[in-house]
Amino acid sequence: MASCLRVRRTSLLRIALLFASLVPAAAQTAEQVKNFPWMNPRLSPDDRAALVVKEMTLDEKISLLHGTGMSGLGPVSPLAAKSNGGAGYVVGVRRLGIPAIQMSDAAYGVRMSGENGRYSTALPSCLGGAASWDPEAAYEYGALIGRELRAQGYNMSLGGGVNLAREPRNGRTFEYMGEDPILAGTMVGQVIKGSQAQHVIGDIKHYALNDQESGRNSVNVNIDERSMRETDLLAFEIGIRESDAAAVMCSYNRVNGDYACENKYLLTALLKHDWNFKGFVLSDWGGTHSAAKASAAGLDHEEPAEIFYGDAYKKAVESGTIPVAELDEHVRRIVRAMFATGVIDDPPQKGVVDVVGGLDTARKIAEQSIVLLKNEHNVLPLDASKIRSIALIGAHSDVGMISGGGSAQVDPPGGNAIMPPGKGQTHWQDQIWFPTSPLKAIKAKLPRAQVQFNPGTDPPAAAALAKTADVAIVFAYQWESEGMDLDSLALPGNQEDLIAKVASANAHTIVVLETGSPVTMPWADEVSGILEAWYAGSSGADAVANLLFGDVNPSGKLPITFPRSDADLPHPTIVKPPVKSTTQDGDPDAWEKIADGLPAFQVHYDEGLKVGYRWYDTEKKPVLFPFGFGLSYTTYAYSGLKVTPGNKVRVTFTVTNTGRRPGAEIAEVYAALPAAAGEPPKRLVGWSKLKLNAGESKEVSIEVDPKYLSVFNVDRNAWELVPGAHVLLVGGSSDDLPLKESVHLK
Ligand code: BGC
Fold first, then answer.
1. What is the per-residue pLDDT across 233-269, written as a single tens digit (0 to 9) for each?
2. Which of 111, 216, 284, 301 to mutate to test the pocket of ligand 1 (most atoms within 8 A of CB)?
3. Is 666:731 a contact under the CB 8 Å cutoff?
4. CA triplet 308, 65, 327: central angle to 5 degrees?
5. Could you tell me which of 373, 354, 429, 389 has the C-alpha nearest to residue 149?
6. Which atom of ligand 1 lies at the shortest distance from residue 210's CA?
7. Order of strands across the sheet with 156-157?
8. Cβ < 6 Å from ligand 1: which residues?
9. pTM passes above 0.90
């Protein structure tokens, strides 16, 4: 009886749908849509997706497989007229109540707001966010992005960058989360979780090993399987596990021979099978190179337009080259992601972005992210009651602070702060300064003192001003963007000379860095204070001033090593492609050339497991500032380490604030594996950020995920613990680990 009823209901539904398909889409009422069985929110996303895919025509399925084009990047379909103005627009299936997907880049805020007459908050750069080591701050970061996406009419984020900083000169280092897979994966996971909680589809990118921009469309990255599983891919694995990310963007480059977007190992064997990823894979913009091969490898969706996943794909299905089941699986994943994240049940409502709330969140995260690198003779915090004069020098610090470029670029309100008002439209790879003025913020702290600005273009003149002041503060910057890499980690232009000259004129010189990557500092010994502010976002100047004057105690730590020189990096120079052809080079045929496939050039990551601090540790190379390092205006002591073996090793210890100010300390736990593991000397396996009042002690207890103590066995395709003595090391920085205890595992 029950089955008879089901058959009857199914056939009634089919008749209703047939009727609905004959009626113009616009005539579909909300009531009709609501009554479709897949609109029942009590069903699982899997069931809902299965139900709706069954009802789709071939054309409807194909329409979900690709975007509709982005001007300047290949063909643009007339359907793109309905785009919300973001980087990607996928028409929905209105007949069945499946809405369009409106995608926007959103690395540190929502992109293209200027072009669309909207407003977005700029958060600190992603690397800055990672420097907070605070998963709650990362969640807030993602939640703010989610809210602003929805207010602007988007239902999908293209943020979530987590390529490991294997090449710190990568022009997108600021978009990523540093050099450690566990820190980066955990933090990006929280960002995505925060966004998806607002009911937008979250994305993690660029999968995988897109660790340099030079020749990104043609480079073939060579790396052994164990190394990638334990480093770059582990960051993705953790990020996806923590967030249940609904989308993965595959990258432009090739990995061990195949393009990432048609790489069966990456997309199917690992992502969809071993990691049980339930969402869909979309190609980076122009990163699709085939229909049949990519489809079989696991690519679900092509962006930004249909080159391979439109008519060509349809023909391949009709001719049987691509099985219908394979097509259905791609479509199922896409609509499942929409059900799972709530974009169908709770579509975005356009509204006014909470500007004031955004400025507040951006400031709080910046205050947690800025890292105090040097504080000789406690030059900081500055005592506002004693200072009569400050010389403020360089980096347009009278009007603004720099931001990161490329598809991550957030548009500043009122335009580029260094240009006349109204002339501030942002263009690809312009250097954009946000109107957050250090001069104003510092003056607000010192209403009775003399604060004078010098642009720093003429170092002797800047030094002359510095000589007359109680304190000199030099703002220095290193700009970077998608589509380029840095030639070196040195500060560009005359800034090294500027800092050296100012420092020799004033014994109280403080440098505030606005950088996307680490920088080398031949001047470090000459200055008294160094603050790394990264790209500090919409409220950067207030955050910096609050730290300089001690309203906030610094608590950020480096998510990336600062080496002494480029020569100390695993690759002293970046391998560049023999043939340059990118969509940004002004080559009119670049798009076609990229789609067809540029000749590969090789990059060999022979350093393998030795990424970041693991490289410097193994090679015994001294560094300028180590991974995990950051000072505070108070001091902390570590004691009482206890390591308890078990399914999850438990590490317990006590941290005491031994100074006179309240603060927040990031307590770090590393593990040194038994020699038989063949690993670099140590790896981060956990941390905790804890608030402590002056004199207060707290016990910290961290459970270590067994995977974080394991190595990847390629022959068995499994993570395994290497039996023997594992040494757990605890402290406040990767090179300052006063507590140590060994535990025998297995
Ligand atoms: C970038 C992606 C971005 C896409 C859309 C590409 O050039 O690599 O990160 O999401 O453009 O703007």
1. 999 999 999 999 999 999 999 999 999 999 999 999 9
2. 284
3. no
4. 90
5. 354
6. 8
7. 88-90, 101-104, 156-157
8. 87, 105, 158, 205, 284-285, 407, 482
9. yes
